[in-house]
Write a structure and sequence with these properties.
Helix content is about 45%, strand content about 20%. The chain contains eleven helices and ten strands. Strand 4, helix 2 and strand 5 form a beta-alpha-beta unit. The longest helix has 25 residues.
Length: about 300
């Protein structure tokens, strides 16, 4: 039995994870913000779960750039994790093997274990939300890069324009970030009605699509942007499958439209006409949701332990 923990910006999820991925003794607490408080919360979770089963190791997923040896270079909104060597800390305290993985990478590899990428060796898992994160799996292995930062898709600069508004403002509205959809819609509404109160709800824009031409136009622009960026990833990684996660992925029409828009981009690309059908990946929804991070971290731990045998 293993302990799986997913540290999020607002909550920490935990569970006992069996070797086959089945879960029990699930827990949920608010995420503390200070380093010592986070550590004490993790100590408490692990101690409580140790009392319920014989534990073989601990897998942890969390936001940020995490090195192979479990050191946090960054940690997203969880500022208390910055600069923390969590793997070392927990291994010394509990005398158990620990694997610490970025949440996007953990979610991606979990799809190969139990989700919609089983028996698939080359695929991308992309989470569309307030940022764009995810994981790259090539030849059955998570691509980490030099520091563990591979897969930080929302860092990409895919168009000109950042020189005028600054990179931070540019990234907040591009690369498939949902705030980019809101920004487009707000600009169109304000052009018609300067008193319009800007929205930050992508869901409300989708709800207006049939009745509001500005909402429909903003959504179409957003779909096209996601498709263009997916094509860039296809050109770089040549995946068999692209899995899309995040709340927007629950909308099957959105997934179908992105898939068709990607095909349209490829149809326009003169250089690949003879091989476009072979290059076209399957585009679908990620199968694992709230438990994907902790499952993926435990899977990575299991694989690491197998290599040591």
């Amino acid at each position: 039995m293993f302990i799986g923990i997913d540290i999020g910006g607002t909550q920490i999820k935990s569970a006992l994870v069996a070797a086959d991925g089945s879960l029990s003794s699930k827990g949920l607490i608010d995420t503390p913000q200070e380093k010592e408080a986070i550590l004490q919360a993790l100590y408490g979770i692990i101690t409580d779960l140790q009392a319920k089963a014989i534990i073989s190791g601990i897998g942890i997923s969390a936001p940020g750039v995490i090195t192979r040896d479990g050191f946090f270079l960054t940690a997203g909104a969880v500022r208390g994790l910055y600069g923390l060597h969590l793997k070392k800390d927990l291994e010394e305290r509990f005398s158990l093997p620990v694997f610490v993985e970025n949440d996007g990478k953990a979610a991606a590899i979990a799809e190969r274990w139990l989700g919609h990428a089983q028996s698939v060796d080359n695929y991308l898992c992309i989470v569309l939300g307030t940022g764009v994160g995810g994981g790259i799996v090539l030849n059955g292995q998570v691509l980490r890069g030099m520091t563990g930062a591979a897969g930080e898709f929302s860092w990409m600069l895919t168009e000109s324009g950042q020189e005028q508004i600054g990179i931070e403002a540019y990234l907040a509205g591009h690369m498939g970030v949902l705030m980019g959809l809101c920004e487009r819609f707000n600009q169109k509404e304000i052009a018609v009605n300067p008193a319009f109160e800007p929205t930050r709800s992508a869901l409300s824009i989708f709800e207006q699509e049939a009745s509001n031409p500005r909402a429909a136009a903003a959504i179409e622009e957003y779909v096209q942007e996601v498709a263009r960026n997916l094509w860039n990833m296809v050109a770089i990684f040549n995946p068999e499958r692209i899995l899309i996660g995040g709340g927007i992925s629950a909308n099957p029409d959105f997934i179908d439209r992105v898939h068709q828009a990607l095909r349209d981009v490829m149809d326009q690309h003169i250089m690949i006409q003879e091989v476009k059908d072979q290059l076209m990946p399957q585009v679908g929804v990620a199968g694992l949701r709230n438990d994907a991070g902790l499952l993926g971290a435990v899977y990575q731990l299991q694989e690491a332990l197998k290599k040591e045998e």
